Amino acid sequence: MKLNLILISEIVLAFVAIMFVHELGHFIFAKKAGILVREFSLGLGPKLFTIKKGETYYSLRILPFGAYVKMAGEDPEINDFNPGQKVGVKTNSKGEVTDIYIDTTMEKEIKVDQIDLERELYIKGIDEKENIVTYPISSEAFLHHDGKKTQIAPWDRQFGSKSIIDRFMTIIAGPLFNILFTLIVIFSIAMMVGVPTDQIMITNIVEDSPAELAGLQEGDIILGVNDIIFDSSEDIVKMIQKSPGVEINLLIERDGKQLVKQITPKADENGIGKIGVGLSPVQKKATIIEAASSAVKQTTGLAVVTIESFRMLFTGNVGIDDIAGPVGIIEVTSAYAKKGLLTLMNWTAVLSLYIGIFNLIPIPALDGSRLLFLSIEALRGKPIDPQKESMVHLIGFAFLMLIMILVTINDVSKLFS
């Protein structure tokens, strides 16, 4: 039971880390651009707890598989008041309105005639003495409605008011932080366990295989073939594969000593020579530069594979049976978690990169589509109608949810089959 709880905790932590990093990218660049960030939430669903620091609420919600940053202007702001509507107001020593109460009677009340919470920041109306009054509104004033307290968002604090560059960076920062997270995790692994060298080591031996008959052992390092020392492990493997049925001399290193073993590779069904061993690169302790170089190289390779997998998906070369949804991803993550912390870290890095690149695809409701709309705005010189853009994102979100449901059903059916 204790082991299961640890395993579950590791899985949840892996997903939370990926989601946190993604939203942290949006959050940092939104703050940098001067956008009012109303909430930074880890998880979805009902709140477990929330604290407020500055003008932002930081929340932890019950479902760990998700996160979001709520920026002013993404949803319609409360700016419409009916003529003659009564509101309560509080003012500060400067005479500025700091609080507006929509559904609560206050000592100071106004029948609203005009109000602007975005640009000119004022409220004009008739007070309780039937006098026409006008008050300036503080740029940090609060609206009180239905028991909720919401800070107003003047136009210059809303997402839509910012330059295309600021909005572009705020959106793309999420996926980029996922990619950066992958680099950092792989770099950390390299510093912990070292980086691969060109030498290869035998990690396991198949029973009754040519390797076992030749006396090879786990931990042996293969240095060369037929008196030739190769600089690349790939060349050694190719030499073995090209020698089915032909005796070769393997130069190995065991306990610091060099030995020569005669072995005859066995041809598989495709005529390729096999000796029946599992191979893994020999690791060496890494310097910071070597670890960084290895991280960049591995992340680049993973990115190429990920992009190619998406290309195959959208060209119809991959079917829905080959796609893993939430259930499938959790199952895979669980399998990796059982193999140890380093394996889970490696998988978390891969998953973070996958999510980062996936979010850059211009599918409605994803970051990529918002970047596409911003690019179109830059070319047109004016923004696309927000209602039309919202409709596109809504349709895209519905489509993604449908795909997610189908994939989840497929995942569950695989579990029971």
UniProtKB/TrEMBL annotation:
It comes from the Bacteria. GO terms for cellular component: membrane. The chain crosses the membrane at residues 6-29, 168-193, 344-366, 390-409. Residues 193-256 form the PDZ domain. GO terms for biological process: proteolysis. It is a multi-pass membrane protein. Its cofactor is Zn(2+). It holds the Pfam family PDZ_6. It is found in: Membrane. CDD domains: cpPDZ_EcRseP-like, S2P-M50_PDZ_RseP-like. Gene3D superfamilies: 2.30.42.10. Its EC number is 3.4.24.-. GO terms for molecular function: metal ion binding; metalloendopeptidase activity. Keywords: Hydrolase, Membrane, Metal-binding, Metalloprotease, Protease, Transmembrane, Transmembrane helix, Zinc. Belongs to the peptidase M50B family. This is Zinc metalloprotease.
